[in-house]
Design a protein that fits this description.
Layout (H helix, E strand, L loop, with lengths): L2 E6 L2 E7 L11 E7 L5 E7 L8 E7 L7 H6 L8 E6 L13 E6 L3 H14 L5 E7 L8 H6 L4 E7 L16 H7 L8 E7 H13 L7 E6 L2
Parallel strand pairs: 7-8, 7-10, 8-9, 10-11
Antiparallel strand pairs: 1-2, 2-5, 3-4, 3-6
């Protein structure tokens, strides 16, 4: 690891220098393996947060209480430490700059990470494909990529949906994502956008079902989930 950046009270972004990195497509992930001195090893998958940048790869990791890997990566890993990384992995939940359809990104919590990679890849490629992001998070304090998200980008619309604590200026009361949220802030189904949904399993299943209910083609709804 060559750098570490705090994103929130429970999440950090770590920058890895990966020798002979083959490059990656926005939306892919890597497998990170940790091995203890007694030989015990464990592995977890983490989405890549950064756009393609040579051998530099950024991962944003959120601490999971009681987890085996994330507490170490968030609280103990320091620049100079080495990790075993395999990847990139994945070919379905990806966005490529040559795509021309409008894009709808639907993130639940740290499910923002691979979608942020797509946003950054769009910016790096100078793409003018319109992006809309619906970002569901518990409270303003859990916002990832705060400064970068506030700056925004031409052709990128961001809507935050708070589930437990909303800022005073928020018109929408706290609550889980609804079909109305997707209707008001997403793309109409006749625009035929590609929809990327990432987050906890229950969130992804509900949001994807709402999108299909609203008329989006199932093959245009791509999902990535984590947790039980």
């Amino acid at each position: 690891m060559v750098a570490r950046r705090v994103e929130s009270a429970t999440a950090v972004t770590i920058t890895l220098e990966v020798p002979e990195w083959p490059g990656h497509v926005a939306g892919q992930h890597v497998d990170v393996r940790l091995t203890a001195e007694d030989g015990y090893s464990t592995q977890r998958s983490y989405s890549i947060a950064s756009a393609e940048n040579g051998g530099r790869v950024e991962l944003t990791v959120q601490r999971i209480p009681g987890g085996e890997v994330s507490p170490y990566l968030v609280d103990e890993l320091v620049p100079g430490d080495k990790l075993e990384v395999r990847g990139p992995v994945g070919g379905w939940f990806v966005w490529r700059p040559e795509q021309r359809e409008p894009v709808l990104l639907v993130a639940g919590g740290s499910g923002l990470v691979p979608l942020m990679c797509m946003i950054r890849a769009r910016r790096a490629a100078g793409s003018r494909v319109p992006f809309r992001l619906l970002y569901s998070l518990r409270s303003p304090q859990e916002q990832l990529y705060g400064a970068e998200m506030r700056e925004g980008a031409p052709g990128l619309d961001v809507t935050r949906l708070y589930t437990r604590q909303a800022p005073q200026e928020s018109v929408r009361p706290p609550g889980r994502i609804t079909p109305e949220d997707l209707t008001h802030h997403g793309w109409p189904s006749d625009f035929e956008p590609v929809c990327y949904v990432c987050g906890p399993t229950a969130f992804v299943e509900k949001a994807a079902a709402y999108l299909v209910l609203l008329g989006h083609k199932p093959e245009q709804v791509r999902t990535e989930r984590f947790g039980g």
